[in-house]
C-alpha cells in the first residue's frame, strides 16, 4: 500500500481550496491528488504509478489539464496570502534535467540549458521571514543569478529588507530593490572600494533560511531532478511542493 501524504485535516483544507477553482468534486478526487503527490515525492514515471491511485493516464491527464489552467500556481498563491515580507531572502539552485525531460514538441525554449553540471534548469527562489517559499522563477541552468534577480525582486514588491549573498552584488540589483523601497543587505565583493561597513551581519547570518528552503523542496524527487519536458509542468510541480509546505500553516 503506497504511503499517503495527506492527513484528513490537510485533505479537508486542500479540498476546500481546490473546489474554489471549479474542480469537479468526483469520488476519486482525493486519490487523483494523492497520485500526483506520490509522483512528486518519488519522481517515478507516470505510467509506473501504483494501481491503487487509479489509471495512471487519467491521473497524468488531470495533472496536465490543471497545469494548463494554472491550478497549482493558484493553490500556492492562495496559501501564501499572509506571507510575512519583513525580510526576504533570495538565491538560486541548479536542478539536473533528466534525459526524459528532453525533446519537447513545438521547438519552444523550455528553460533547460547547459551548465557545468550538464543539462540543467535553475530555480530562483525568494522566501519570507519565516523561511517559507514566497515566489520563484524557472530559467535554464546557464542563466546567472544576477541576470534573473531583477525579475524576482519585482515579484516581492512590499518587502522591507532584501538579503542575498555576494553573488548578487550588483548596482542594478541594489537599484531595483531600493526603487521598491527595500533596504538591501548584500555583502560587497573583495575588490569593492566601498566595503561592507555598516552591513547587518547578524541579519545576514539568517541567510541559511533560503538554503534550508531549497533542502525541503528537494526532498521531493520530481523537484530535485527535472523529469518534465514542459516548463509549465515543472513549474506546477514546484508550485505544488511549495503549496504542500505551506498547507499545515
Notes on the structure:
With about 250 residues, the chain is of the alpha/beta class. It has two domains: about 10-70, no CATH class; about 85-230, 2-Layer Sandwich (Nucleotidyltransferase, domain 5), CATH 3.30.420. The chain has helices at about 10-20, 30-40, 55-70, 70-80, 145-155, 170-180, 200-205, 210-215, 220-225, 230-245; strands spanning about 85-95, 115, 120-125, 135-140, 160-165, 185, 225. Strands 1, 2, 3, 4, 5, 6 and 7 form a seven-stranded mixed beta sheet that branches. Strand 5 (about 160-165), helix 6 (about 170-180) and strand 6 (about 185) form a beta-alpha-beta unit. The mean pLDDT is about 95.
Short description:
The chain is of the alpha/beta class. It is about 40% helix and about 15% strand. It has two domains: about 60 residues, no CATH class; about 140 residues, 2-Layer Sandwich (Nucleotidyltransferase, domain 5), CATH 3.30.420.
Amino acid at each position: 500500500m503506497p504511503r499517503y501524504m495527506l492527513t484528513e485535516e490537510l485533505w479537508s483544507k486542500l479540498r476546500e481550496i481546490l473546489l474554489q477553482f471549479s474542480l469537479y468534486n468526483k469520488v476519486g478526487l482525493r486519490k487523483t491528488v494523492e497520485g500526483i503527490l506520490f509522483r512528486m515525492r518519488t519522481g517515478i514515471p507516470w505510467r509506473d504509478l501504483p494501481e491503487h491511485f487509479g489509471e495512471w493516464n487519467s491521473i497524468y491527464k488531470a495533472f496536465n489539464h490543471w497545469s494548463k489552467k494554472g491550478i497549482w500556481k493558484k493553490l500556492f498563491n492562495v496559501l501564501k496570502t499572509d506571507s510575512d515580507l519583513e525580510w526576504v531572502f533570495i538565491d538560486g539552485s541548479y536542478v539536473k534535467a533528466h534525459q526524459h525531460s528532453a525533446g519537447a514538441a513545438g521547438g519552444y525554449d523550455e528553460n533547460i540549458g547547459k551548465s557545468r553540471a550538464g543539462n540543467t534548469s535553475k530555480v530562483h527562489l525568494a522566501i519570507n521571514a519565516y523561511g517559507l517559499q514566497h515566489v520563484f522563477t524557472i530559467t535554464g541552468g546557464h542563466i546567472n543569478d544576477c541576470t534573473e534577480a531583477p525579475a524576482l525582486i519585482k515579484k516581492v514588491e512590499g518587502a522591507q529588507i532584501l538579503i542575498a549573498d555576494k553573488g548578487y552584488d550588483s548596482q542594478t540589483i541594489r537599484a531595483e530593490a531600493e526603487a521598491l523601497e527595500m533596504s538591501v543587505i548584500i555583502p560587497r565583493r573583495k575588490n569593492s572600494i566601498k566595503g561592507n561597513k555598516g552591513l547587518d551581519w547578524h541579519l545576514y547570518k539568517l541567510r541559511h533560511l533560503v538554503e534550508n528552503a531549497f533542502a525541503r523542496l528537494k526532498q521531493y524527487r520530481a523537484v530535485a531532478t527535472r523529469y518534465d519536458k514542459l516548463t509549465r509542468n515543472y513549474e506546477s510541480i514546484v508550485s505544488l511542493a511549495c503549496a504542500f509546505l505551506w498547507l499545515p500553516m
